[in-house]
């Protein structure tokens, strides 16, 4: 998945720093989807807004959902003894960030990086 | 399952992370390093990440675990070859990796490790005077 994200980022002409930041963000969310969400899907789309081009990734799982999104978005908050940087970090490394979660239904995270 | 090879270089252990690591490989590496630190009584661990185009919090946690174990076993951990785009991303991600030194390459990393042994040797002597 990381290679595919990077390939699309390269296609859009992202600088190597922007590529790295966005692929790292994707890696964090993907890991969450696997570890917490019990597996899910990612949709990669080229998007456009006001003549600007971007890459949008939509991660979706049907896992247990996030109990408290506000907590989850705080640096250092972890339910698995990790660093707790995945969600807030991915948000910092992306331009646009959207998250929606319902306990017992699942979680959806969308991140976008504009050129 | 393949395991990451660990080389002994002087009084240090050298590990080169070349591939995408999955959980089991990361755990195996941590185990192997701990074992070798004990059997070789190495004073340093050099982790070469020059091949990595990406370091996320999973790799960060692995590096942190390795450094923690090394510290308990009286060894210094130095990460070498971090690419600039990786460094910039780590800063924004908020991954500070405290307790881990960094160096541009293996030579400099080895120098850091031998310097730290000299310092502690001097400190010991000063302490007893």
User: For the terminal residues of chain A, how far apart are their CA atoms?
Assistant: 20 Å
Helical proportion of chain A?
A: 25-40%
Low-confidence stretches of chain B: 124-129
Write the H/E string of chain B, N to C: EEHEHEHEH
Strand tally of chain A: 4
Helix content of chain B: 40-55%
Could you give a short account of the major beta sheet of chain A?
Answer: 4 strands, antiparallel
Q: Helix/strand/pairing class of chain B, anyone?
A: alpha/beta
**Nearest-integer average pLDDT of chain B:** 90
The largest inter-chain interface, given as chain pair and residues per side, is:
A-B, 21 and 19 residues
Number of helices of chain B: 4
What Rg of chain B do the Cα atoms give? 15 Å
Radius of gyration of chain A: 14 Å
Widest β-sheet, arrangement of strands of chain B: 1-2-3-4-5
Identify the overall geometry of chain A: globular
Strand element count of chain B? 5
Biggest sheet, spatial arrangement of strands of chain A? 1-2-4-3
Mean pLDDT of chain A: 94
Structural class of chain A, by secondary structure, is: alpha+beta
The ordered H/E elements of chain A are HHEEHHEE
């Amino acid at each position: 998945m990381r290679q595919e994200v990077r390939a699309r980022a390269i296609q859009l002409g992202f600088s190597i720093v922007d590529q790295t930041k966005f692929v790292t963000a994707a890696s964090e969310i993907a890991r969450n989807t696997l570890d917490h969400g019990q597996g899910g899907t990612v949709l990669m789309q080229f998007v456009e807004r006001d003549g600007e081009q971007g890459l949008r990734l939509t991660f979706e799982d049907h896992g247990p959902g996030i109990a408290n999104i506000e907590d989850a978005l705080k640096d250092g908050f972890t339910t698995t003894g990790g660093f707790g940087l995945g969600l807030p970090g991915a948000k910092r490394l992306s331009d646009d960030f959207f998250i929606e979660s319902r306990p017992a239904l699942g979680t959806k995270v969308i991140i976008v990086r504009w050129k | 399952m393949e395991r990451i090879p660990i080389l002994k270089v002087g009084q240090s252990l050298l590990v080169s992370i070349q591939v995408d690591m999955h959980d089991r490989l990361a755990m195996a590496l941590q185990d192997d390093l701990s074992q070798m630190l004990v059997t070789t009584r190495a004073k340093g661990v050099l982790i070469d990440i020059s091949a990595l185009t990406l370091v996320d919090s999973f790799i960060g946690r692995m590096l942190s675990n390795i450094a923690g174990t090394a510290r308990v076993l009286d060894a210094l951990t130095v990460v070498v070859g971090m690419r600039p785009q990786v460094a910039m991303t780590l800063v924004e991600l908020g991954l500070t990796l405290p307790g881990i030194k960094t160096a541009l390459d293996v030579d400099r990393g080895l120098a850091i490790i031998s310097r730290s042994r000299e310092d502690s040797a001097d400190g010991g002597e000063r302490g007893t005077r």
